[in-house]
Write a structure and sequence with these properties.
By secondary structure, the chain is of the alpha/beta class. It has helices at 3-13, 20-26, 49-65, 85-95, 123-135, 151-163, 178-186, 235-245, 261-271, 308-313, 317-328, 332-338, 363-375, 379-393, 396-403, 405-413, 431-434, 454-467, 474-486, 506-519, 527-534, 536-550, and strands spanning 36-39, 68-71, 102-105, 108-111, 139-142, 192-195, 204-209, 213-218, 225-227, 250-254, 277-281, 285-287, 294-296. Helix 4 links the parallel strand 2 (68-71) and strand 3. Helix 14 (379-393) packs across helix 16 and helix 18 (454-467) runs antiparallel to helix 22 (536-550). It starts with a helix and ends with a helix.
Length: 552
């Protein structure tokens, strides 16, 4: 076609649209020197942990460069859209301390001069730029989608294209004449808009990814769909138009998008846009239990792929964020060790320190970070956070927490603070389970497996119960326990069939069974303090309960 014919075709396909110069004038350059970056979730489900990691990158990148982080809702897939998913995504970002500076805000009014920040409200803009691309001779209408019997073929072809970018696919409609196009339109046929690729897959050029480094990238040679037959753009087209008008300076996204990069680059060049910087981040993975192989997190198989999982468990927000930072920058742990009191926002985050290989999600490391963070809280802070968690996720526990507040605060205060604080709480949902022995009507489940001589154990417990009284100090309590234990000489009497090393001593063994009688567990905070909190009568009653259990 001639230049004149392309202009006529553009007016025919997209009549009565504004000239793109209108939008260039409307969306002026930003008055900001740092990076302008954005997160663009689709409202097709919950906010994925990978999206949270992306948001953390965006937020920190904007922070360290004095830039802007904005949120754009990419809702062009109406068939998969889930009600309120956009609002949930925004709410999660805010709750995890990653609030965008501008853009989409759930049900609230948008903030910023570059909106609308919801793609379904930008169709007039996309039509204007589609008109421009047709006028430039770089896009054409494809009528195949509406042709009889072609749907299945098209779906299969799109699948093949998505699996590899190293294909040269020229759509049959690219060579239609203006008259042929008019004839199709007169017959009422709908059309999809396709890119008229000029690339050569035999040619490569050097491309620098901000994370992956320099790579050889093949040119795009596929006539990809830009706007579907329903008038809605695909990601490639919408992102190029939106990010250019919104003055995005760097596109940070998952490695899955890397294979689509050639068409995105060609689109930028077709419009004559200044190319963006791209940074493709690794995916968070897990070892599959069935195959033992490394795989991406699955929405279907992995409940913790949903970021609300961590809220429901009661992890401190900052624990999840700092764990993600260990995946992103390997030197974060060293920095945290050297700066134990600084907020993570002071960490000198860098894209260049993000590894190329996909990290495995490690709950053990997350739990260690969480325990450390909770151990530094005051008893009041732990209690308040537990109430806050219960108020949202388990309301039945709010009354229990409230009616036992003083005893819980006393228990939480044991071994808290100092250089080596107690680290037994992983998340707030387990607080009541950990300290259930301070609750009224506590019914311990005793475990005395391995005990050979229950008579000897009963004799010791009776002796200890009869003479037990509240003592002034931990040392007095220990000396008293030692005195009673030595009267029974557990080791010589072979209380165990085989004496475990950790209990190979009278006092250690005696302490173990007193602890079991009081708390129902072999592990607890300092036993003297627990017994003092519970009171003498309660402690004697619990010891007697174990005696009765052994006598059965």
């Amino acid at each position: 076609m001639t230049e004149k014919e392309f202009a006529e075709l553009a007016d025919l396909l997209y009549p009565n649209v504004k000239d793109v110069s209108y939008y260039f004038e409307k969306y002026k350059d930003r008055d900001v020197n740092g990076e302008v970056t954005r997160l663009g979730p689709s409202p097709t489900g919950y906010l994925h942990i990978g999206h949270l990691m992306q948001a953390l990158i965006h937020r920190l990148l904007a922070n360290v460069t004095n830039g802007i982080f904005y949120l754009r809702l990419e809702d062009t897939d109406a068939k998969r859209e889930i009600k309120n998913a956009g609002e949930i995504a925004y709410d999660m970002l805010v709750r995890f301390g990653l609030k965008p500076d501008e853009g989409y805000r759930g049900g609230q009014e948008e903030i910023g001069k570059y909106g609308p920040y919801v793609q379904s409200n930008r169709l007039d803009i996309y039509n204007a730029f589609a008109h421009e691309l047709v006028r430039l001779g770089r896009a054409f209408p494809c009528f195949c989608a509406s042709a009889s019997g072609k749907d299945e073929i098209l779906k299969r072809r799109e699948k093949e294209l998505n699996e590899s970018s190293d294909l040269e696919v020229k759509d049959s409609c690219r060579d239609l004449t203006l008259d042929e196009i008019k004839a199709n339109l007169e017959q009422g046929k709908s059309f999809a808009l396709r890119l008229k690729s000029t690339g050569d897959i035999q040619k490569t050029h050097e491309f620098k990814d901000e994370i992956m480094g320099k790579r050889d990238l093949r040119e795009n040679a596929r006539d990809d769909i830009l706007i579907k037959s329903n008038g809605v753009p695909v990601y490639a087209f919408a992102h190029v138009v939106d990010d250019h008008l919104m003055k995005t300076t760097i596109i940070v996204r998952g490695q899955d998008w890397y294979q689509s990069l050639p068409v995105h680059i060609e689109l930028n060049r077709a419009f004559g846009f200044k190319p963006f910087k791209y940074a493709h981040t690794p995916n968070i993975c897990i070892l599959d239990e069935e195959s033992g192989n490394k795989r991406k997190l699955s929405k279907r198989k992995d409940p913790f792929a949903n970021v609300s999982y961590f809220l429901e468990k009661g992890y401190p927000i900052v624990a999840v964020i700092e764990y993600l930072l260990t995946l992103l920058n390997s030197d974060f742990e060293i920095w945290r060790k050297n700066n134990p009191t600084l907020p993570y926002t002071e960490f000198p985050f860098s894209l260049k320190k993000i590894g190329v290989s996909s990290p495995l999600f490690d709950f053990m490391k997350l739990n260690d970070i969480s325990k450390t963070i909770i151990s530094k809280m005051t008893a009041e802070e732990v209690y308040d956070e537990t109430v806050k968690w219960a108020s949202e996720w388990d309301k039945a526990k709010v009354d229990i927490l409230s009616s036992n507040k003083q005893k819980l605060l006393q228990i939480l205060s044991i071994d808290r603070g100092g250089d080596r604080p107690r680290k037994d709480i992983t998340y707030f949902s387990e607080v009541l389970d950990l300290y259930k022995y301070v609750l009224p009507n506590f019914e311990p489940v005793f475990n005395v497996d391995g005990v050979e001589s229950k008579d000897d154990l009963v004799a010791f417990l009776k002796d200890y119960q009869e003479q037990y009284t509240e003592l002034a100090s931990n040392q007095d309590w220990f000396d008293n326990l030692k005195e009673v234990a030595n009267r029974h000489n557990f080791v010589d009497n072979k209380l165990y069939k085989q004496v475990p090393t950790m209990y190979a001593g009278n006092v250690a063994t005696a302490s173990k069974f007193v602890r079991i009688s009081i708390t129902g567990s072999e592990n607890s905070p300092e036993l003297y303090s627990i017994m003092k909190i519970l009171g003498m009568e309660e402690c004697k009653w619990r010891i007697n309960k174990l005696i009765k259990y052994l006598a059965k």
